[in-house]
Amino acid sequence: MGTYLLTTTLIPCLSQQPFKPRVITVSSGGMYTQKLDLTNLQSDNGSFDGTMVYAHQKRQQIIMTEQWAKKFPEIHFSVMHPGWADTPAVRTSMPGFYNSMKNKLRTPEEGADTIVWLAVAEAAVNQPSGQFYLDRKPQSTHLSLAWTRSKPEEEEKLMTVVEEMARKFKM
Hints:
By secondary structure, this protein is α/β, with parallel strands linked by helices. The protein has helices at 2-15, 50-71, 88-93, 95-101, 108-120, 122-125, 152-166; strands at residues 22-26, 76-80, 131-134, 137-139.
């Protein structure tokens, strides 16, 4: 909800800028494991699994970015995965993963590289809007032969449902 509220609140201001404004959303490769699930957007059905909820939210960010890019061509939208970086969140939320991968994780600075590039590089804004990036390169949002693709009407419904949910937070 936070990504949606912040972005949609800023869009009117961004749309009026004399330059090509940019919106960069930080997602995660965790989204590769999940398909859009419109039946449980609030994570209130079934038992709670934080890793699964995180991956669902990151999948939703990908779809929202793609939808915004289509709807607001005057703004450049990007979404990115920083790679697996050695951060307090990784250490505490996935201790097993951290312990097995700690010598291979990126530094926070390495994880931030693509975010900074997307924010300031002319080459980034010259790329098509709505793409997903890792290491300054566009990436597929689905793994080959994965079951994570959703139908266009499901993606449009996500935007409608989230807008309805967001109304109670807007003034």
